[in-house]
Amino acid sequence: MRLPIILIAILAASAANAQLGRRWPSEKKIVPDPVTGLPLAFLTSTDGGYRQSKIYQTHRQWTVDGRWLIFRGSRETGSQAFAVNEQSGEIIQVTETGFSGMLCVGNKTMKLVAMSGGGRGSNGPRQILEIDLAKLFADVAEGKVKPAATYQRVCGTIPSTLIADGNMGLDANDDFVYFRVTGPETAQLSPGQTLQPAFGPRFPQSTSGLRSMNLKTGEIKTIVNVGFNIGHVQTNPWAPGEIVFCWETGGKAPQRTWIVKADGSGLRPLYPEAPYEWITHEAVTGKDEATVAIIGHRPIASATAQSDWGIAGTMVHPTGVAVVNLRTREMRIVGQVPEWSGGRSDWHVAASSDGRWAASDDFKYEVWLYDRHNGEMNLLAGPQKAGADHIHPTFNAEGTEIEIQSALISKDNRSLNICIVPVPKTILKRSYSLKAPE
Asked: What are 271-294's pLDDT values in tens digits?
């Protein structure tokens, strides 16, 4: 049957609109922060119909050349992954069939790894895809974009017997992904693990596990099965074969943070928390360090010993941004939202890989910078509006910028955009002395 010319045109336009490599002109805007005056660089500035969000704070945001930020978006092409050039503002679509869960940007290569198909609760097989960003960007620049198969490679297929939702991390050497699974194959727990009781409002009693996939061969191996619900899965970008994950409850966990090797050895709590501590939003931030939030968001008067979490999440005990040494296991609190701030408590945390800075957002959606050398704190950005999600700060590789997702410029006060908060040059040039000031 011959299709009408108008239908052929519509189908051709739809294919072009969905194409990997489609370009959008710069939306970049420099907006002074209303409170601090710092120039915030909004790399997207959409509102209403379009939706943008950064990759979660546990993962790399910039490509290895430092020029592009990868983000999640919903435009007329549907929900896809996009890249935005920090300098020019140009936006390029880098997936074509969508993705499930976490986007993994290469640590050593200009590659993007994503999971296609499926999702939480889906029983169908999923594929791990690798996108060659260097080849794609070069062809986009020349105006010679080819079909998606030119840039996209299927690394392997996850069978339907393993329920995967895209919660995964990319190894430091870009050769393995480690991903969360649930289902019958996780019922056989690893040595030393026991089935934990249901805890928190969101997830029932369950088992879950971690699996690895060799991106060259597609081979899948078991790492560990545990007796609780695994949440965020991340890797150490500086240490091959090192995985950090959490026990996700939807609130406080009895033991939030965990670390394990890719061969299943060394499984242990990353930071062994006390019952009165509320640990959350862990992120590997250096070769030997992870940063966690010890939050104090609950009023003491309402947190009685008879409540579900007792006094956890209050300021009866120390709270703040804590850095844990992955080798010595020592923990230091390196910053805390000041008492006079309406933000009350640190919430999502970050640190620069050179060890100079830590950062956090608070419950007013402000951005704080902490100098780990002298303990000084600086407010970088005032309240960013509550928006559709939290702002999730992440440092760039050089420790000179912090990426957030912000609703500050959105007319609907909800739509998020990709935003860069600079660390002030005067602070970056700071020198230190043990001599007392005059």
From this structure: 999 999 999 999 999 999 999 999
